[in-house]
């Protein structure tokens, strides 16, 4: 099993696919899981929002639900962890955002993704978005870290 961060994202295991991208940063007052959520889902760069809009158009013919505001997908929320998730007929996914307590003036921030396929179309869909997923999650984490230090 991967080295997941956060206790509640693990509730959605086992999975067909999972990843966890982490960064250890200097503890600053600007680092919180709420700010990580804002940076990742509420204040997306226009390019990422555009990709999600294109995705919504492309998946409609296959019966997949278009994206909804991430605020409405929150399954769990506390001071260290926020889990968002979405269940569809083709696949289910959950994203865990985590910001550890300060330890030795350092913190760990992480974004974890868990995906379960419900049928073959879910597997095909995720196979198509997988390369973008990895790039975008890494970018979003790096962008958050840079924002914290501005």
Explained architecture:
It is a single chain. The protein is an alpha+beta fold. It has a single domain, classed as Alpha-D-Glucose-1,6-Bisphosphate, Chain A, domain 4, CATH 3.30.530. 35% of the residues lie in helices and 28% in strands. Strands 1-5-4-3-2 form a five-stranded antiparallel sheet. Helix 1 (33-42) crosses helix 3. The protein is globular. It starts with 16 loop residues before the first strand and ends with a helix. The model has no long low-confidence stretch (mean pLDDT 86).
Short description:
This protein has 150 residues and is α+β, with helices and mostly antiparallel strands.
The oligomerization state is: single chain
**Strand order in the sheet with the most strands:** 1-5-4-3-2
Q: What are the segments in which pLDDT stays under 50 over at least 5 consecutive residues?
A: none
**Mean pLDDT over all positions:** 86
Give the class-level CATH name.
Alpha Beta
Number of strands: 5
Q: What is the H-and-E element order?
A: EHHEEEEH
Q: What separation lies between the terminal Cα atoms?
A: 35 Å
């Amino acid at each position: 099993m991967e080295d997941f961060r956060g206790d509640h994202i693990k509730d959605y295991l086992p999975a067909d696919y999972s990843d966890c991208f982490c960064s250890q940063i200097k503890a600053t007052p600007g680092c919180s899981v709420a700010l990580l959520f804002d940076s990742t889902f509420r204040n997306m760069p226009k390019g990422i929002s555009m990709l999600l809009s294109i995705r919504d158009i492309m998946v409609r013919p296959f019966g997949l639900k278009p994206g909804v505001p991430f605020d409405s997908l929150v399954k769990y929320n506390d001071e260290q962890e926020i889990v968002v998730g979405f269940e569809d007929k083709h696949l289910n996914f959950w994203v865990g955002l985590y910001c550890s307590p300060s330890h030795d003036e350092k913190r760990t921030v992480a974004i974890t993704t868990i995906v379960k396929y419900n049928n073959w179309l879910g597997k095909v869909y995720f196979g198509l978005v997988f390369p973008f997923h990895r790039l975008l999650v890494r970018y979003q984490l790096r962008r958050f870290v840079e924002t914290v230090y501005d």
